Amino acid sequence: MTTTEAAVTVAPAKDTPQVRRRRRLSPGRRLPAARLAGPVLLLALWAAASAAGQLDPAAIPAPWTVVRTGAHLWTDGTLPTDILTSLQRAATGFVIGLVAGVVLALASGLSRTGEALIDGTVNLNRAIPTLGLIPLFILWLGIGETFKVAIIAIVVYIPIYLNTHAALSGIDHRFVELAEVQGLSRFAFVRQIVVPGALPGFFVGLRLGVTGSWLGLVVLEQINATSGLGYMMFQAQNYGQSDVILVGLVVYGVFGLVSDSAVRLVERRVLSWRRTLSS
Amino acid sequence: MATHTEQLTRVAVQLRGLTRSFDGRTVLDGIDLDIPAGQFVALLGHSGSGKSTLLRAVAGLDHEVVGSGRLTAPERVSVVFQDSRLLPWRRVLDNVLLGTDGEDRGREALAEVGLQGRERAWPNELSGGEAQRAALARSLVREPELLLADEPFGALDALTRIKMHALLRELWKRHQPSVLLVTHDVDEAIVLADRVLVLEQGRIGLDLTIDRPHPRSYRDPLLGEYRERLLAALGVTEDHA
Hints:
The complex is a heterodimer of chains A (279) and B (241).
Chain A: H1 2-10, H2 12-15, H3 34-51, H4 63-75, H5 78-110, H6 112-127, H7 134-141, H8 145-169, H9 173-181, H10 186-223, H11 229-238, H12 242-270, H13 272-278
Chain B: E1 11-22, E2 25-36, E3 40-44, H1 51-59, E4 66-72, E5 77-80, H2 92-96, H3 103-112, H4 128-141, E6 146-150, H5 158-175, E7 178-183, H6 186-192, E8 195-200, E9 203-209, H7 221-233
Parallel strand pairs in B: 3-7, 3-8, 5-6, 6-7
Antiparallel strand pairs in B: 1-2, 1-4, 8-9
C-alpha cells in the first residue's frame, strides 16, 4: 500500500519537470566582520613579505618596526605632544566650521533674503579650492595657529552648508501644507518639521566635514608647521625615517576612522526613526 | 434630512460667488453653497473638475491662486489628505498631537480609531490603513467643527476602504462635525453622505439629498436610483448588457 502511494506521488515528476531554484543574482548573505577582512589580509601580506625579506626595510619597514617606533615616540613624549597639537587644530577648526555651516544654512534656507545673500557667496567660495587660499591667509593671519584653524574651518563649513541647505530646501511641500493646516507657528514649524527633516542631510555634511578637517590638517602641517603630526612626518622624510612616516599615517588613519564612527553612532541615535527602513 | 432638521439650522460653511482660476482657466465659476452645521456632504466630480480646488479654498490653502468671492468657514477646521501625511520622524502619538497638546486627548483619539497600543510606533511601521486611521485621529484631536477630506481613502485597498467608511461614519456620529468629503467614487459618496454635490465645469451641477438610514449597504436597491442619477450627472451611462 505504501509503495503504491509513493508510486502515485512520484509519477507526475516524470512528465512535469521538478522546480529548480533559480540561480541567485544578489551577492547573498554578508560575511561576518566583512569590513575588517580586507585590511587584515593586507596586514598579513605585509608582515609575510617583510619576514621573507622581500621588502626594502628603508622604503617599507616591517609592521613590528612601525609598532616599535610608535611605542618609542610615545614614551619619549614627542608623539603625545604632536597628536595633541594636531587634535587641537582639527577640533577648533571643525567646531567653527560646523557652527558657521549650520547657521548659514539655516539663514539661507529659511528666508529668501538670506538665500539671496548667502547661497551664491558660499557657492563662489566653493569654486575656489580652499587650499589655494593658503598663501593669502598666511599674508593676512601670519603663519601661526589662526590661519590653520581658519583654513580647516573653511574646508569643514562648505560640505555642512551645502548638504544642510539642500536638505532644508528639499523639505516635502506636503509637510509644509500639513503645518499650515495644523496651525503651527513659524517657530514650531521650524523646530518640528524643518529641523528634523533636514537632519539626514546635515549628517551627510557632517561626515564629509569631519573627513575634510583631517585632510586640511595633513596638508597644512606638512607645508607650514613647526609642530604636530604632519611636521613630525615632514621631518622624518628629511632624515629618511620611513617608519616614523608610517606611524604618522597610522595615527591619522585611526583618528579618521574613530571620528567617522563617532558621527555615525550619533547619526544612528538621532535618526533612529530611519532604522525601521534599513533593518 | 428630516431627522436632523433641528441641528441643521446653523450654517457652517458659506460660499458666495466663489471663483478660482489657474493661468486664465476658470476652475471654479461663481459657486454658491451653504453647508449646515453637522451635515455630511460628499463632493463628486471628474478629475480636474475643481473639487480639490474647492476643498483647498475652504481649507485656506490656496495661497497663490487667483480668485474672488466670499467664503466663511468655522474656526476649527481639520483636513485629512489622500496620503496620511504623518511625519516619519515623530512617533504616532506625537504625530496625532502635532500643533496641539494634551497627551490624554491624543491617546483617546488613537483608541477611537482602533490604534490603542500603537502610540509609540513609527509611521514607517504602520500599514496604509493604520496610517490613515492615525491621520483621522490627528484631525479629531482638534475637535473640528468642519472636517475636510480630500479623497482620504483613495490610496487604500477595497477591504480597508469599507472598514474606513464605517469608522468615518461612526466618528462623524459621535463628534458631529460638518464634513466635506471630496471623492471620485460614486458608491463611497452614496454610502457615506447625506448630501451629494456634483461639480461640473466649475459649477455645482447636481445637489442631491440622500435620505436613507445608516448603515447603508451597497446592495440597497433604493441607493441604486441615487447612483444612476449621480452617474448621469457625471455624464457616465452604465451598460449592464
